[in-house]
Amino acid sequence: MKRMPLPDKVDLREVGLRDGLQMVGQILPTQTKLDWCRDQVACGFSEIEVTSFVPPSSIPQFADAAEVLKGAKAIGGFTAAVLVPNLKGGIRALERGADKITFVLSASEAHNMSNVRRPTDASATEFEDLVTERDARGLKGKVALSAVIATAFGCSIQGEVPEDRVLDLSERLAAAGADELSIADTVGYGNPLQVRRLFAAISTVVGPLPLAAHFHDTRGMGLANVIAAAEVGVRRFDAALGGLGGCPFAPGATGNIATEDCAYLLESIGLSTGIDFERLLQLRVRLEEWLPGERIEGRLKQAGLAKTFLSAA
Ligand code: COA
Ligand code: ZN
Questions:
Q1: Which of 27, 75, 127, 275 is deepest in the core (most CB within 10 A)?
Q2: Which of 164, 221, 214, 166 is nearest to 189 (CA)?
Q3: Residue 50 is part of a domain; what is its CATH number?
Q4: How far apart are alpha carbons 304 and 145 in whole angstroms?
Q5: How far apart are CA 213 and CA 236, in angstroms?
Q6: pLDDT score recorded for residue 64
């Protein structure tokens, strides 16, 4: 059988302003968040997860969520996405004009209980209700709904997460009308063989529905997992500037793959990101100024671009 050539363009989504800031204790001022967002757009990012619609009592960093979304929409020129943990957050995001909503639930029952305080099936029902709400408001085709399956590769509370559970959820969320399915390794348990196997299996279950990959680099597997997912056709990746990030409701969670390193990897293997590296590295310097004392990762910032970068692809 002849294989279809895979597209050589990728969407790299910045999640630093959401996932990245979840574990950061110091509250970044709203204006600084918007400066970050503006710079990120100027670097060429076409989608940014700008905030999270959660109660401030859960994550105080996002008490300014509505203001950040409003400011992000005023910047314009990109898809402003927000994360929501439940239907209530989803409705707020619809009302406040988010371009895209990422609704998170966990394949691990134990993590779902810890993260959003309800069984996974109840969260899936809320996602179905959110699709109904969006469509009833005439927003189908205008506001994209992405279903995020967290802890898809294992869980630091319950351990093993059966692949069949991930496949069943994928099928259900696709049937509900998700515009995208994002598969997340919340606690960095995945390895490249698992990533290849699971994404390939999900593709057979959900057909042409776009899949996104969300990796944390907790055990140094993050970029290897990006290659594994890219090999089986994934063209949407999440990453956080400076490798910030982690779920406060999952023990042992640490940062996402670093945006700058991930972009470098993707470009190096011939997958075009459309990102201006010089600007991105300047933004990376500003991030350190904005978050003094915070542990910020990322190898490219330390080493700089190779002289052979892009000539060897
Ligand atoms: N945004 C703002 N307020 C919300 C909300 C949301 N998404 N969801 C619920 N609330 C409010 C309710 O209105 C209620 O307020 P009140 O006490 O003034 O009436 C209060 O929060 C409790 O609501 P309830 O529905 O009982 O929530 P809960 O206590 O069962 O908690 C979550 C459920 C999802 C809100 C909570 O577990 C949570 O915030 N989780 C965050 C998960 C997360 O962000 N993880 C990291 C990303 S993966
Ligand atoms: Zn994450």
A1: 127
A2: 221
A3: 3.20.20.70
A4: 36
A5: 6
A6: 98
81, 190, 189, 195: which is closest to 145 by C-alpha? 81
What residues act catalytically? 247
Model confidence, pTM? 0.97
Please report whether residue 183 resides in a domain.
Answer: yes
Please name the residue whose Cα sits nearest to atom 2 of ligand 1: 55
The whole-number pLDDT of residue 165 equals 98
Ligand 1 binding residues, C-beta < 6 A:
22, 52-55, 58-59, 84-86, 88-89, 92, 104, 115-117, 150, 247, 249
Ligand nearest to the CA of 218: 2
Q: How many domains does the chain have?
A: 1
The closest residue, in CA terms, to atom 8 on ligand 1 is 88
Q: What is the pLDDT of residue 7?
A: 72
For residue 48, the model assigns a pLDDT of: 98
Contact yes or no for 258/294 (Cβ under 8 A): no
8-29 tens-digit pLDDT:
999 999 999 999 999 999 999 9
Whether 5 is in a domain gets the answer no
Assigned domain for 174 exists:
yes
CA distances from 62 to 58, 101, 121, 249, 276 (A): 9, 15, 26, 15, 28
What confidence tens digit (pLDDT) does each residue in 55-102 have? 999 999 999 999 999 999 999 999 999 999 999 999 999 999 999 999
Is residue 4 situated within a structural domain?
no
pLDDT score, position 178:
98
Closest atom of ligand 1 relative to the 118 alpha carbon = 30
Nearest CA to ligand 1 atom 11: 55
SS3 content of the chain, % helix, strand, coil (to 5): 45, 15, 40
Residue written as token pair 């009592």: 57
Residue spans of the chain under pLDDT 70: 1-6, 311-313
| Furthest C-alpha separation in the chain | 55
Domain that holds residue 213: 11-303
